[in-house]
# Entry
Amino acid sequence: MTKLMLLSISDNLYYVIAGVLSLAVLFGIHLMSQVKTAKTGNILSAVALLAGVVVTLIRYDILPIWVLYVGVAIGAAIGLWISIKVKIIEMPQLIALLNGLGGLASFIVGGYALLGIGSDQQVFSLLVAMLAVIIGALTFSGSMVAAGKLHRVITQKPIVIKFHQSVTRILIALLAIGFIYPALTTAGLTVVLVITIVVAFLFGILFTIRIGGADMPIAISLLNSLSGVAAAISGLAIGDPLLVAVGGIVGASGLLLTQIMCKAMNRKLIEILLGKTTVQKTEKVKTEKQVVEEEVEEDEADENTPYLDVIKNAKDIIIVPGYGMAVAQAQHLVKQLADTLKKQGATVRFAIHPVAGRMPGHMNVLLAEADVDYDDLYEMDDLNDEFKNIDLAIVIGANDVVNSAARNQEDTPIYGMPILNVDEAKEVFIFNYDLNPGYSGVDNPLYKRKKGVHMFLGNALETLQKLADEMK
Amino acid sequence: MELLHFILLGVFVLSTIVGYFLIKNVPSLLHTPLMSGMNALSGITLIGALVAFAISYRDIGWLSSIAGGLAVVVATINVVGGFGVTHRMLNMFRKKDEKHD
# Structure
């Protein structure tokens, strides 16, 4: 007897409800496209999800099973605690962690479906169940590694093991076998399931471990996408259209963000997947030169207009934040600086590169936390033509995203990456920890420019505070 | 494959396409909350977890339901933590004139 013949009215009703809830989620996302309505959108999505849960409990007649509520209560308490306690600065690793948990849940659901719980045991269902296990498991382990890197428990540098490429290929081959296996026979399926899970774990680890810090926005977006895909596929396995629809939406969202991040770094997704990271040979060669430059830099400053005069007379200012601002947690001081400048009658705008930081939108969130008006936050393309007209550009902890080497130095790993045209500004203040190149290891020609460049080296918390005191 | 499977695959393709074009309208300003919100939504797998947990617990025994229980817990963390943190972040996005409400 086929499943279709068993469709009762309640199943049909469920499909209608699932459709309505999916539309609610889509509408919620639509509301997320504006700050004013975004909160409503988020709540709408949450309510739709909750409704889906309640409907499922009724549909499967599992409302009275009390252990469910114990599980949900534990999870909800932990989730609530996390969402209240987490620092905004820890957002990238939290998102990676939550991503991983979604993957973990999806792969467990896939595993049950594979063993016949919640699914119809047909070849199609078995295959997709196995796929859910694979994608869910690698999303889980990959996200955990990403979270570890972002939390600095694991080094942010790419780790490459011996025969990384070959090992990865062997793991992919094993995963392919594991995936097809249920179509051939169900004998020994449990063993194959366990082996496949282990292989998928290893694959997720090997995949993420060689992704470097600056490529994290891409990795996080991709894992985000995968967690959605895993949910959608586990939905295919248990025949639940709501899971399929919502998971598909999440998958699309993550994919879109991944594309945006790749474009903003001029990287091809496939290169990231194959482990070509931005850190390359250039790194070592260049560092020797810097020592010399550092000394030169300080003498040159005399020829310039003193920086206090520059900043006090500037009428049109653009601030460029980068990952360094996040590391130093300098966003509040940056906001204070912006306020002081505004009081002087200057226009202050923030130019935000799409990949500044460790996740999409990282700088926006940090500045919003510091109470910067979101109308002052601009995307790269909105302000890039303005740099040549402004009086002053202030760079705070940004490096590669303002490195003009990306425009013309073909041999560098950042060549072709769109950058903020800070070098076109008449006067530039740079608040960086040191003169070392950014993550890519490529020297910034801006540091060598004598005219109009003022370096403020050291911890941005101190250098910004010092400037603020001097301006009083 | 049955009709249901085709329908499900169709749902997957359709939702992916519609989602893609809707999400394209979200400005980069809101990309982090968007991502954490999407993250929370990927916890929709909680539905599958609840079913797997309940059925294995009821029909087979508690031992077989341990993994399902774990799935319920982590999926709920994913959902509640995700929506919670998104809400918190969105609360931070303010205009000047809204600050002193």
